[in-house]
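Recall from the previous lesson that a structure prediction takes nothing but the amino acid sequence as input. Here we apply that procedure to TetR/AcrR family transcriptional regulator from Aeromicrobium fastidiosum. The sequence below is the only information supplied.
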Amino acid sequence: MSDHASNDPAPRRGRPGYDQETVLRRAIDLFNRQGYDGTSMGDLAKELGLTKSAIYHHVPSKEHLLSAALDEALDGLTTAVDSAASAAPGASAHARLRTVVQESVVILAEHLPAVTLLLRVRGNSEIELAALERRRAIDDKLTSLVRAAVDEGALRSDIPPELISRLLFGMVNSLVEWYRPGGPVDVDVLASSVATLAFDGLAVHPS
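The prediction returns the following tokens.
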């Protein structure tokens, strides 16, 4: 090492800079690891290398982060279901339902941490209760779409539509337990495989 290099001043260590998106990503990961109720703003500050007081320069509260995370998960699902429910006349309920299933898989993959957090919500706060209410609204629209597909003769009628809906999206939701973006399974292949497996089993077969 030269004399010049040895005389260089050490790099200055300042307060880490984070945008709100980065803080949200790190908060969601922490909530998923420790549980939302088991995570404090002090824990998040430590995770980011900030002081407890400095974290409030980035976000106003833990509740604000939870709300943003749940909205992220719910907004994509709501858009997919609403688009299917209001599709142009002539589009079969079966085709619209299959599209929703495939889009739901893609949304889950693209927003995996936020969807994981959503699926763990139990209604312990006003924010969580509001998220659960939005989930119920989504479930009701999906059940109506399933019922329409049964009525048009595209799905088997020996299983109640409410149960079909729960089983379909229970399969989609279970992906949070093992699917990892960047892994060996391509998300488009995954979405197509889930739809094929589900709808082949639900198809009306000639007697």
